[in-house]
Specification:
Elements lengths: L7 H11 L1 E5 L6 H11 L6 E6 L2 H15 L7 E5 L2 E3 L6 E5 H10 L6 E6 L7 H16 L5 E6 L4 H8 L3 E3 L7 E6 L9 H15 L3 E5 L3 H12 L6 E6 L5 H8 L7 E6 L12 E6 L2 E8 L4 E8 L2 H9 L7 E8 H4 L9 H4 L3 H10 L14 H13 L11 H7 L5 H10 L3 H9 L11 H7 L9 H17 L11 H8 L4 E4 L6 E4 L4 E3 L11 E7 L8 E6 L2 H7 L4 E10 L4 E10 L2 E7 L5 H15 L5 H10 L11 H6 L1 H4 L10 H6 L3 H5 L4 H10 L3 E3 L5 E3 L8 E5 L11 E2 L2 E2 L1 E5 L5 E5 L2 H7 L1 H11 L24
Parallel strand pairs: 1-7, 1-8, 2-5, 2-6, 3-5, 6-7, 9-16, 10-12, 10-13, 11-12, 13-16, 27-30
Antiparallel strand pairs: 3-4, 14-15, 17-18, 17-20, 18-19, 20-21, 22-23, 23-24, 25-26, 28-29, 30-31
């Protein structure tokens, strides 16, 4: 009896009474095959049971195992539906589908007629389609179908957040598994190690020290093929090597799942496809390469890209559990015990890390924004808006982010919206291009030109290794499937097709020797040295390396300017450009014919209105800073000493509001050099009205009038009011000057304008220090007066008159 049987009565009761549940059950418990059949046997729902699987192989396998249990062929009581293939009939009660199929069913008819329950199997994988499907089903159940039964199932799911969103109970099956002995590496692998070589070595170690068939986890097809090649050269024919990955022919996949022939041990080299939902016979040993391939949004390609990362603890647990399904097992791990503790707990949900463009299109088609639905993990607002911007660019959304007629068509095409848009408008040849851009580059490292890739599709035999031949074969098969979505018989160039999918990646070559390009989306990029496209004026970039310093182009195609003008005539317009140039440190005035960020024609604008130049100069002021003159600096020091009800003269506020107080004064200023000589004081003073100016002059006067009637500016920058003047000019002063109640700090200067004394007590200076100063100064400046009693002398700036 399968372990899941113990929990089935409670599960059936929860579904019957509450209509929703979250089921946790470890690998091998039997949840995938037993739960749908138990629901059918208990007559829990009226209508079909639809169960979602994350992969096509898992959907076929689950349907096959349930049909075997019933003694039937697939397509009778139990059937499946995946992209491009369906085996169902009017008698089908349980339908296993891949996740995108449910989205199409919901978008076609939100009430899901004839469907009584939706099961989300392996929900822990948290794909975008699963998260979206659950959110849509919850809204349908809340508003249209209160009888719709919803069940989320997983082996490693963090169940609490899912249960909260579903408002559902959590049921846990303890499961049944045999002990699995972990064997870690004795030391970390060198940074230069090759995964395939290390895996082949550990697999040979496993074969020599254990019994039973081996399941080895590798990140992708390329690594599987290279490991297979290394093993075939090292082990005898008694071992059966069976690759297993999603793009394989179904019959080859079944061969990997079936038991090994009697007397032989099988080595299954698999991607993460074997982590869940699949039962592979005879497995007693797992070799975990410690790597997982995930779909992460990649700004360099404008879509999701598969990247290789370390496995998480949850994934490692799933993989190790495969060795303990039927007996005690062993799991060889390609990392150390110490490294094990540093593994992340769970993989990130695709809604956090993946491309949201298709997701945003589906929500627009549904007619509800993200905050109107219940998501286990809501999408990031900024990235969701970026996705909407791409869809507006493709004409799938209008300016209000509502879906257009064209957007509804794109939503029905099983491709990224960029490529779906190209298929709809590109005519003949678009299917080949769409299939090519959906796959891994078969010519990586052999130049950037996309034309080479298109030509390679007709000659797959030119590829020496099986990996690349397999990629080309898949591209050709996908192209045949996609032809049904193309329209028209026109034969567009490869450049035009790429420009349809990537209107934001059309690049114009910059001036200079290096092949640098400015892309229509505003980013810069560079071609590799010596690349065949480096002489092209216009290109369309379909793949970049994502380097944040200088993005390098990995894949592109030439585009004629006439093609661009024909394709985007409504978006090519003349603009009067008047802006501050950081590179030239001046306002640049040009008239340009532009497509987005690139200029197709560029001319000098000699008669730009002065007010436009002044407005652009404001950006220069923000970059260069205020640069006040000495007079302006003294004014700012005074104004900043005023109370809070006085206008704000801080640098931060002045720069923040520069367009309000400085703009009228900037006429004629257009460069850094002009700004350096510009006197900012009148503009600063103009911020004050007459009464405020009087208040400032009274409370914080700007000048001190000497006994000779000369005005000396008061400096407040040091925190105390200060003046500097010749010592002789203060003769006769017997009371120290003050500002308000604060004594002025007076710097007394020699006739040569050098400081002699700094004081805040002139009478005290006369009485105490002056005599010593007089002794020193008389010898140095004999032509100037140095009276014994300076309090009785007249102030002067003149030297003594010579005696006749």
């Amino acid at each position: 009896m399968l372990p899941i049987e113990a929990i089935l009565p409670d599960l059936i009761d929860a579904l019957r009474t509450q209509g929703r549940a979250v089921l946790q059950a470890p690998p091998g418990a039997g949840k995938t095959t037993r739960v749908p059949l138990a629901m059918l046997e208990a007559d829990v729902v009226k209508g079909r049971i639809v169960m979602l699987e994350p992969r096509r192989l898992a959907a076929r396998a689950a349907a096959g195992r349930m049909a075997d249990t019933l003694g039937e062929e697939v397509g009778q009581t139990v059937g499946y539906r995946i992209r491009g293939e369906a085996r169902t009939s009017t008698h089908t009660k349980i339908e296993v589908v891949t996740e995108g199929i449910l989205t199409r069913m919901l978008q076609s008819d939100a009430e899901l007629p004839g469907i009584g329950a939706v099961i989300f199997d392996e929900f822990h994988e948290r794909s975008l389609n699963a998260d979206l499907g659950l959110a849509l089903c919850l809204e349908v159940a809340d508003t249209l179908r209160d009888d719709l039964v919803l069940l989320a199932m997983s082996a490693t799911l963090d169940a609490e957040p899912v249960a909260q969103v579903m408002n559902a109970p959590i049921l846990t099956s303890e499961g049944r598994s045999f002990p699995v002995e972990p064997i870690w590496l004795p030391a970390p692998l060198a940074k230069t190690f090759r995964l395939e070589t290390a895996m082949a070595d550990v697999i040979q170690q496993a074969l020599a020290t254990t019994q039973g068939s081996v399941l080895a986890f590798l990140p992708g097809e390329a690594e599987i093929r290279r490991t297979e090649s290394a093993l075939r050269a090292a082990i005898s024919d008694e071992f059966l090597i069976a690759p297993l990955f999603g793009a394989m022919d179904f019959k080859a996949q079944q061969a990997a799942i079936r038991p090994a022939p009697k007397g032989r041990r099988k080595i299954v080299l698999s991607t993460a496809i074997a982590e869940t939902s699949l039962t592979i016979a005879d497995i007693q040993v797992v070799v975990d390469g410690g790597r997982a391939r995930r779909a992460l949004y990649d700004a360099s390609s404008g879509m999701s890209r598969l990247v290789t990362e370390r496995v998480t603890r949850a994934e490692a647990t799933q993989r190790a559990g495969r060795a303990g399904r039927v007996t005690e097992g062993t799991c060889f791990k390609l990392w150390t015990r110490g490294e094990d503790g540093a593994l992340a707990s769970f993989p990130p949900p695709e809604i956090e890390a993946g491309d949201l463009t298709a997701f945003a299109l589906e929500l627009a088609l549904w007619g509800t924004p993200p905050d109107g639905l219940r998501f286990v993990t809501p999408p990031h607002d900024g990235r969701f808006k970026e996705a909407q911007a791409v869809l507006r660019m493709l004409g799938a959304l209008d300016d209000q982010n509502r879906i257009t007629r064209h957007g509804k068509v794109l939503a029905k095409v099983p491709l990224h919206p960029r490529l779906a848009h190209m298929l709809q408008l590109g005519g003949k040849g678009a299917a080949d291009m769409a299939a090519l851009l959906s796959e891994r580059d078969p010519l990586r490292g052999r130049g950037t030109d996309l034309n080479l890739r298109i030509r390679a599709l007709s000659k797959p035999e030119q590829f020496g290794d099986a990996v690349h031949r397999g990629v080309v074969s898949r591209i050709r098969q996908d192209a045949k499937r996609l032809k049904q979505f193309t329209k028209g018989n026109e034969q567009a160039s490869i450049g035009v097709l790429a420009a349809l999918a990537y209107p934001d990646r059309i690049g114009m070559r910059r001036k200079g020797d290096a092949p640098r390009y400015l892309l229509s989306g505003g980013k810069g990029a560079i071609l590799p040295d010596g690349d065949g496209l480096s002489g092209q004026q216009l290109i369309v970039v379909t793949d970049l390396d994502g380097d944040t310093r200088e993005t390098r182009i990995r894949q592109a195609v030439p585009l004629a300017q006439s093609e661009l003008r024909h394709l985007y005539a409504d978006q090519i317009k003349w603009f009067d450009l008047c802006e501050w140039s950081r590179r030239e440190n001046q306002v640049v005035t040009r008239q340009q014919e532009r497509f987005a960020a690139i200029a197709l024609d560029d001319r000098a604008w000699t008669n730009a209105p002065p007010e436009h130049v002044a407005l652009a100069m404001l950006d220069g002021v923000r970059q260069l800073g205020l640069r006040p003159s000495a007079k302006a600096a003294r004014f700012l020091s005074r104004a900043r000493l005023m109370t809070a009800d006085f206008p704000d003269f801080s640098d931060a506020y002045l720069l923040q509001t520069v367009d309000e107080w400085l703009l009228p004064h900037l006429i004629g200023v257009r460069s850094s050099a002009d700004w350096k000589t510009f006197e900012i004081l009148p503009a600063l003073e103009a911020r004050l009205d007459w009464a405020q100016k009087q208040t400032l002059d009274t409370r914080v006067p700007g000048k001190f009038v000497t006994p000779l009637g000369r005005s000396v500016p008061i400096d407040y920058s040091a925190g105390v009011p200060a003046i500097s003047l010749r010592l002789q000019e203060m003769f006769g002063v017997t009371q120290h000057p003050v500002v308000g109640q604060i004594p002025l700090q007076v710097t007394l200067l020699s006739p040569a304008q050098r400081p002699v004394q700094v004081t805040q007590d002139i009478p005290g200076f006369w009485a105490e220090s002056y005599a010593d100063v007089r002794k020193d100064m008389r010898g140095q400046y004999p032509k100037h007066p140095w009276p014994e009693d300076p309090t009785q002398a007249d102030p002067t700036l003149r030297a003594k008159r010579r005696k006749p």
